[in-house]
Amino acid sequence: MVQTLQNYINGEFVDAAGTELLDIVNPTNGELVAKAPVSVASDIDAAMAAAKQAFASWKHVPPSQRQLMLLRLADALEANSDELVEAQHRNTGQVREMIAAEEVSAGADQLRFFAGAARLLEGKSAGEYLEGHTSYVRREPIGVVAQVAPWNYPLLMAVWKIGPALAAGNTVVLKPSDTTPESTLVLARLTQDILPAGVLNVVLGNGETGAAMVEHKTPGLVSITGSVRAGIAVATGAAKGLKRAHLELGGKAPAIVFADADLKKSAAAIAEFAFFNAGQDCTAITRVLVQEAAHDELVAAMVEHTKTLKTGSQDDSENYFGPLNNINHFNAVNAVMDALPAHCSIATGGKRAGDKGYFFEPTIITGAKQEDDIVQKETFGPIITVQKFLTEAEAIEMANDVEYALASSVWTTDHGTAMRTSRDLDFGAVWINTHIMLTAEMPHGGFKSSGYGKDLSMYGVEDYTRIKHVMTVLDA
């Protein structure tokens, strides 16, 4: 019997008032694994009320106690890794080993960072900036935060959402993606004996549910990781209530490869970073810009290495990456290939992998022009283009000539080239001779249509705070 999932509100799992149900499908084989409710206004009201009530006391919990709770939650993630992995694999088809390492272990590590950050929030030092008066700054939690997480890394993105928000003293109403809710619900259950009731609430639903959360009167900040389209909708909805917004949106990451790079080593690394998680990563390499003299050698090496990156097997231990997340996205990626201009050539891949599920071959395309959709628009799949450039200036111009500005990388053995290009690339992250690597201590977030606000690091925690000036007269 297929399970119907429940919301998590005020420390308990409860049935949603909404009667519409969504099918949760395993993308490795298309089989139905669960049903999830589409939460309606009364469900959202209940979650917001629980979060608001909990905030009244949670905001006064000392940072040392919030730290201990987040540390306990990190330990709980690791202790329940197998359950979290299986719950997520049912919804994403991701390679289990990858979920365990890149989401459970990494998520626990990042929770431990946020736990420490709870005790390190800073403000301007107290002093007499006006004669006869002392001023100081309070850094305070915002209140209730509404958060919408994506389907590409469901557990890890839930951690990125709740970690800084809770560390700063906020309470949360979180909506996981409509296709990948199960690992988030396991996470919620793990908090039952750790967090006070109402501090974390999870509401299931679709885009309309998320929109209703954003426009609800209670949250002081709304946060989403998702597409540019979704980010614009969230920013617009937040603006109606003058709420703050935190947006981590799409990407079209370039990798600039100069002729002096170690081409064989660079080709293997670029292919792996591009096709990791089936390219379903807004920081994934999607555009390779290579100096003309090195183009043919790099493409040949990339194709050779890409053919070793397997996908399509029902035994995920045989795969480098799993399937695309859902049938709609699978169809969209196929449509991108169907619409390729005639001047483009497929060096490898380009079609479905296997005969079951939503697997897609790792694909390398040459001959694309800068104005082509395949270069300008986010595909969010295992597809990369390779373009030629002559000069450093041309490479920078081509790299920056997209609406996205989240991530990029430079591949060279020349220090000056690396420093100049990292300065001139208009992206929130620039890697040198590597890509996609993240650490909890460093910020993650983009510019332009990739959104605003930072995840991870102290900058990410500060995004979930507000600043208050307090002044007192000295001779009262």
UniProtKB/TrEMBL annotation:
Keywords: Oxidoreductase
Pfam families named in the record: Aldedh (PF00171)
GO MF annotation terms: oxidoreductase activity, acting on the aldehyde or oxo group of donors, NAD or NADP as acceptor
InterPro entries for the chain: Ald_DH/histidinol_DH, Ald_DH_C, Ald_DH_CS_CYS, Ald_DH_CS_GLU, Ald_DH_N, Aldehyde_DH_dom
Residue ranges of domain Aldehyde dehydrogenase in the record: 13-470
Active site: 248
Family: Belongs to the aldehyde dehydrogenase family.
Name listed for the protein in its UniProt record: Aldehyde dehydrogenase family protein
Organism for this UniProt entry: Arthrobacter crusticola
